[in-house]
From TrEMBL:
Name the record gives this protein: SMP-30/Gluconolactonase/LRE-like region domain-containing protein
One example GO MF annotation: calcium ion binding
Chain sites annotated for binding substrate: 77, 79
Cofactor(s) the protein requires to work: Zn(2+)
Active site positions: 176
Pfam families: SGL
Organism per entry: Xylaria arbuscula
Binding residues annotated for a divalent metal cation, in chain numbering: 127, 176
Amino acid sequence: MDIKKHRIHWVNLDEGPASVITVQLDVPVTVTSDIEGIDPRERILVGVKYGIAVLDRKTGKYEYVGRFIEGDNERLRSNDGAADPHGRFWLGSMTDIGLDLQPEGHVHLFSGNPVAKSMRHPVTIPNAFGWSPDKKTMYFTHSTERTVFAWDYGAEDGSLSNERVFYRHEGPGEPDGFRVDTDGNIWHAVYGESRVLKISPDGKLVGQINLPTHNITCTQFVGTELFITTAGMEAGEGSEEAVQLSGAVFKVDVGTRGLEPFAFKLHA
C-alpha cells in the first residue's frame, strides 16, 4: 500500500519482483482483506478515504460498502485495520496526510451496516488489530501513545471487556503494524527505529529483527518467512543506504508461522 500516492502494489511471490502490478486509485488506500466466499484474485476489501470498499482487481474500480461514523470529513482518512473472528472489520481513521495531526480519529467497527460504529474516540494514529490464537484476546496498537492495548474478546458476540495495557514501547519510534504467530507472539514493526519487535504472549520483549532502513511499517507471514514493509525516506533523513532501501519489502525466515487472517463477511 502506498497511502501518499494512492496506490496498491501486488507481486507474485513465485515470479519475484519483476511481476509487480500497480493499481492507481483516486483516494488514499490503506489496508486490504479477503472477503468470505469471494476469490481474492478477483475482488478484495480495501480501506479507503471514507471507509471500506470492494475493489475489483482487474478494473481498479471500487465501491463503498461502509462509511465512517463522522461522514465524509475531508480532514480524515482510514489507516490500518483487520477482519475479526466474526467477519466484521475494524478500521481506524486519522488526520489525512499534509494536515496538522490532531486527536480526531475513531476506531470503527463495520458489521454489515452502511455506517460504522465508533468504538474508541478520540485517537490520533490508530494502527494494527489482531487476535490471540484462542481468539479470546484482541490487540490494538495506538501508535502515538506507543501502546498496544488488549481486551477480552467474546467468542459468542465479539464483545470487548477488561481493557488493559499489553505492551508500552519505551523507544523513540512508534509501534506500527503487527501480526500474531501461532504461539501467540506479536511481531511488531516500529516506525523510526529500524526494527521489528517480538513480543511474547505476556507482553515481554523477547527478540527483534534489525533492518537497514528506519521506517518499518508492517509485517506479514508467508509460511515461516516474515515479510516486512517499510516507508520511504527523503535524502538527508538517514544514511545513503537507509534512504536507498526505504520503501523496500524485506523477508526473513523466523522459523514460525503466523495465524491465518480472518475474512470479512460482506453481509455480516
